[in-house]
Fold:
Amino acid sequence: MARARWEPTDDGSGYYEKEYLEKLTKRQDELIQTQQDLITAQKKLVDLRKQLLEKRQVEISAGQSTAEKEMKSFFAVLQKGCTTALAPQRLRSALVVASEDRGCNLIVHGLHEN
Structure:
């Protein structure tokens, strides 16, 4: 009858093989568990990155809408301010002051000379 490799042999060396196989099996089980833990941790990392990405997208869209609102209000104020500042009477008065004070040069593009 054939003996299993882990059974003791006549010289007693089989016990060492059995211990070695048990240790090897234990290490293999630990490796499998470590790999499973790693996979679980990587899945959690992917989920956390998705959450972070979603939060950043929400923040970006909120910032974008705020920026759009601010730009609209800025342009409205700028338009009102420019119409007042570029009124013909104001430009004429600025030109008169500039023509009286020859130390200042004023160039207004698009203004017809009268």
Summary: Helices lie at 14-85, 88-100. The chain is about 75% helix and 0% strand.
